[in-house]
């Protein structure tokens, strides 16, 4: 009798351990012809976001899938509420472009607990709070650190390692802003003659970038390089420079990341010196990754999109291919 009890206890412990292991795994996704998908967008106030949303909507329409779309309007709190609404609607999966790294991590865990797999696109979350392959399926996007590094290396080569730089950062707490600064700073610190005079957020917005540039330009008239974390802030900075009587491309080199058609045209015009692409057309890759996951294929923790660069030597030829 005692042996039977011990055996039962051992079986019970084994089952408990199995249940615990299953609970820590990612939610499964059945293979279906059509899915109900959530897409929690962070904002829609610039060409990059508009192009990304269109790509996600177009691909859903092409596949005949139902897309539950929300726009957080630049609010992390609203985006959390948007994802919770998708969980309540019992979508099959969620595509999330996190507004900020920390606030969105907990709601990813809520989706996991509800049995809904989450795919992060274009922005990541704090890995100490939610991990790829454990709490969400994967991150699909660009290598933001590499983007910042490429800009830094271009400046170093162009200026022979001597530059007075103003840096316009993206949204505070977002992975692109964090990583584009890290990659850039890692290059700049190798060159004693390259100095970051000021670094301040322009929140990835054109008018905010203009306002910040106006203020920093008054404090640092010796600036000869502007590094903007996206096209919108670069275009705002150009407006501020011109209003101050400076010539972008001659008096001050302007560099940016994203590669929208307006920015590439400014490269053609000589006002922007260099742009690293960050392609917003996520639809095909996002949905094909979801189908692969449902089919049981192994999905890497990060799927990095290939990105081009635009400069005086190729901008005219590539202009029509920019988003």
Task: Name the CATH superfamily classification of the largest domain.
Answer: Response regulator
> What is the CATH fold-level name of the largest domain?
Rossmann fold
Helical fraction: 40-55%
Give the tally of β-strands: 12
Task: Quickly count the helices.
Answer: 11
Overall pLDDT metric = 92
- How much beta, percentage-wise? 15-25%
Overall radius of gyration = 23 Å
The structure class reads alpha/beta
Q: How widely separated are the two ends?
A: 74 Å
Cα shape:
elongated
Tally of domains:
2
Strand order within the widest sheet? 2-1-3-4-5-11
Structure description:
The structure is a single chain. This protein is of the alpha/beta class. Helix content is 45%, strand content 18%. It folds into two domains: 36-141 and 280-306, Response regulator (Rossmann fold, 3-Layer(aba) Sandwich); 144-278, 3-Layer(aba) Sandwich (Rossmann fold). The protein has helices at 2-24, 47-63, 76-88, 105-113, 144-159, 175-188, 206-219, 231-243, 261-269, 283-294, 315-318, and strands spanning 36-41, 66-71, 93-96, 118-121, 138-141, 163-169, 194-201, 225-228, 253-258, 274-277, 302-304, 309-311. A six-stranded parallel sheet has the order 2-1-3-4-5-11, sandwiched between helices. Helix 9 (261-269) links the parallel strand 9 and strand 10 (274-277). The longest helix has 23 residues, at 2-24. The radius of gyration is 23 Å and the shape is elongated. The termini are far apart.
């Amino acid at each position: 009798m005692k042996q039977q009890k011990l055996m039962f206890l051992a079986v019970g412990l084994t089952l408990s351990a199995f249940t615990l292991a299953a609970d820590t795994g990612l939610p499964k996704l059945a293979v279906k012809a059509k899915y109900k998908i959530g897409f929690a967008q962070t904002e829609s106030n610039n060409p990059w976001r508009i192009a990304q949303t269109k790509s996600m909507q177009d691909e859903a329409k092409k596949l005949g899938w139902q897309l539950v779309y929300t726009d957080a309007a630049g609010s992390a709190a609203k985006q959390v509420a948007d994802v919770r609404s998708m969980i309540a609607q019992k979508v099959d999966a969620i595509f999330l472009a996190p507004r900020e790294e920390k606030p969105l991590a907990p709601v990813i865990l809520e989706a996991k607990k509800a049995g809904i797999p989450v795919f992060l696109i274009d922005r990541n979350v704090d890995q100490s709070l939610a991990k790829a392959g454990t709490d969400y399926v994967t991150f699909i996007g660009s290598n933001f650190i590499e983007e910042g590094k490429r800009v830094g290396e271009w400046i170093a080569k162009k200026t022979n390692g001597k530059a007075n730089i103003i840096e316009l950062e993206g949204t505070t707490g977002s992975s692109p802003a964090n990583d584009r600064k890290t990659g850039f700073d890692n290059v700049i610190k190798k060159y004693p003659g390259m100095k970051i005079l000021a670094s301040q957020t322009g929140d990835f917005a054109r008018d905010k970038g203009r306002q910040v540039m106006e203020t920093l330009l008054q404090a640092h008239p010796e600036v000869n390089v502007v590094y903007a974390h996206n096209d919108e802030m670069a275009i705002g900075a150009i407006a501020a420079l011109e209003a101050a009587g400076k010539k972008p491309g001659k008096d001050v080199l302007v560099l940016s990341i994203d590669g929208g058609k307006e920015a590439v045209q400014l490269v053609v015009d000589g006002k922007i010196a260099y742009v690293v692409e960050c392609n917003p057309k996520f639809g095909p890759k996002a949905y094909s990754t979801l189908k692969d996951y449902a089919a049981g294929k192994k999905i890497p923790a990060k799927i990095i999109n290939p990105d081009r660069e635009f400069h005086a030597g190729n901008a005219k030829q590539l202009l029509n291919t920019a988003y």
